[in-house]
Write a structure and sequence with these properties.
This protein is of the alpha/beta class and about 190 residues long. It has five helices and nine strands; from the N terminus they run ββαβαβαβαβαβββ. It has a single domain, classed as Rossmann fold, CATH 3.40.50.
């Protein structure tokens, strides 16, 4: 759920930069939905600034779409937003329509693991992995990512504070940060 320590109104999260800066996205009442804070997203997108223009983005466990839509707002060419919850998908569809992003934001209502194992989409240049923490899905997601990412892809992973969500071999840690609630890391695919 939305963190009580965040400085945003309950039920919304905002896009913090780019052409849609300040736009509020609804946060539906969905179990396990916990949007990344404005501060964490600002840091992440500062790290990714030079990689965003023209990038193909995959936002697994999209929830509010804050990561994928923020990437589009800052210059990504396209974003695939994968979300299984029907209520969250309805909110995402409304946000995509309100932003006029239907030509660049593809909404996929599906279980992220099943979608990874059944899709041929890709390669993606930037992938956001921020699943519900209680489900402990990081290892299974990382195992399914390889066929869908570019040789020089970026991978963002968010986990509960103190939980190591290591993507495994083939990824080099680029930057990391933490709040009282989450650890977040940005990796680069190691093509050597």
């Amino acid at each position: 759920m939305v963190s009580p320590s965040s400085n945003r109104p309950a039920g919304t999260v905002r896009i913090v930069g780019g052409r849609w800066r300040g736009t509020k996205l609804p946060v539906p009442e969905v179990a396990g939905l916990r949007p990344s804070s404005d501060r964490v997203r600002e840091t992440l997108f500062n790290w990714l600034q030079s990689a965003l223009p023209g990038a193909r983005v995959l936002d697994l466990f999209a929830g509010t779409g804050a990561l994928g839509l923020e990437a589009l707002s800052r210059g990504a060419a396209s974003a695939a937003l994968v979300e299984r919850d029907r209520t969250a998908c309805a909110g995402l569809r409304a946000s995509i329509d309100r932003l006029g992003a239907g030509d660049t934001a593809g909404l996929i209502q599906a279980d992220a693991l099943a979608w990874l194992n059944g899709t041929t989409e890709g390669p993606f240049d930037i992938v956001f992995v921020d699943p519900p923490f209680a489900d402990d899905l990081w290892a299974r997601v990382m195992a399914g990512l390889t066929p869908h990412v570019a040789a020089d892809a970026w991978l963002y992973v968010e986990s509960a504070h103190g939980v190591q969500a290591d993507p495994g071999p083939g990824w080099a840690l680029h930057r990391e940060g933490a709040t009282r609630e989450v650890d977040y890391r940005l990796y680069r695919r190691d093509s050597t």
